[in-house]
Amino acid sequence: MPNDPPPTPLAAMGRRGFLLTAWPWRAAGYLLSTVPVVLTAGLPLVLLSLPLLRAVAPDATSSERAFLVVLSGLLVAGLGPMATIPLARLERRRLRLVDLRSTGSGHRRPPGRGVVPWLRTRYTESVTWRELGYFLLLAATTPILYAVLSSALVLQLCAIAAPLILLGGDGPMALGLVKVAAPAAALPYALAALVLLPAVPYLLALTAGAQAALARALLQRGSGERLQAELVEVARSRARLVDAFEAERRRIERDLHDGAQQRLLSLTMKLGLARVDLPPGSAAAVSVADAHHEAKQLMTELRELVHGIHPRVLTDRGLAAALGELADRSPLAVTVAADLPGRPPRHVESTAYFAAAEALTNAAKHSGADRAGVAAHWDDGVLTLEIVDGGAGGADPGRGTGLTGLADRVAVIDGRLLVSSPAGGPTCVRVELPCDLNRPLSG
């Protein structure tokens, strides 16, 4: 927006009243504070580069020069980040003098505590080497750039003061390539320097803005790194959600099995005993018999509910056994072929099981098939599950067959769902789940 404050001196230079703002002073402060930063960073980098001095000696052999150059490079690359990483943190804070935009660090949090995880993380990050390159570039160019800038400013001040100095007879004076001996000869140069005096803040802002742009480009997290960090955080959040879902599922299963189911079983037994004690054919006996029958039906439905949340056989014996039990309980004639040398993680097992259960339920309800086949195998880090039925085909996620929800559940753990269902059949549902088999099969 035009009325928004400019975030950098480069943006502020194009607006009216620039000389009356704080930007010239901020730019001057940024340039002056660069000197101690360069000295702090340059000293260790120069010390690490000392072998190069011996390499340029006239009596050094070619092999010695090559060795010294490689040694110097290894020293700078190996120990240089130890000096530039903390200085880069200071430099990002100092950047706020001339850049009002937020500047985040591109460093990641180490996966563990200690020196080794920290070093492994820092030395594998691109921002670490950009920081080192930034200070190497700063140490090489700042002395030259600031010497030219200081010379220009000193020359301008000398030109302004030249008529007064020459009035005292302290001449001649050298103003760059020109020598003046009298106040009258120095006056045109003084007037020109005065006219150019308002350009000094612009020169400072231009220099500070260019240096700040370089710092921002090299010291902050790049767009690709930001995207990668966001994707990593999304993956971590998704993993936390999966873990939380599994923990909540186990809690519900435990509460139903150990709480409600046990109380309902006790109620069914008490109703059965009460039915025995009542006179046969009495109204009370009939009511208790109906209540006993309803309790037994509710007990059966609760068992089915507990089994649907997470079958016990899946926890105890793994996916292959659970698929076999699922086939036995299906209204279709289901054949199972499962060749798994080990057990995948629990959340992968659970997703694979419910994918098979949902696909068989869809086949029984919508396809008109009387038989189906389930195959599961693991190869090259991917658990593949295929459910094929000989029904009429034409499965469409848009018709509420449950395939959309199943695809979403599979995608939560980085898997994918493939469906082939031409008109006339057959329908093939293929689920691919990346995982490692890190748990041995139980006997």
Automatic annotation (TrEMBL):
This is histidine kinase. Its EC number is 2.7.13.3. It is an enzyme of class 2 (transferase). Gene3D superfamilies: 1.20.5.1930, Histidine kinase-like ATPase, C-terminal domain. One of its GO terms (cellular component) is membrane. Pfam families: HisKA_3 (PF07730), Sensor (PF13796). The chain crosses the membrane at residues 27-53, 65-88. Residues 248-314 form the Signal transduction histidine kinase subgroup 3 dimerisation and phosphoacceptor domain. It comes from Planomonospora parontospora. The keyword Cell wall biogenesis/degradation does not apply. Residues 66-219 form the Putative sensor domain. One of its GO terms (molecular function) is protein dimerization activity. Keywords: ATP-binding, Kinase, Membrane, Nucleotide-binding, Phosphoprotein, Transferase, Transmembrane, Transmembrane helix, Two-component regulatory system. It comes from the Bacteria. It catalyses: ATP + protein L-histidine = ADP + protein N-phospho-L-histidine.
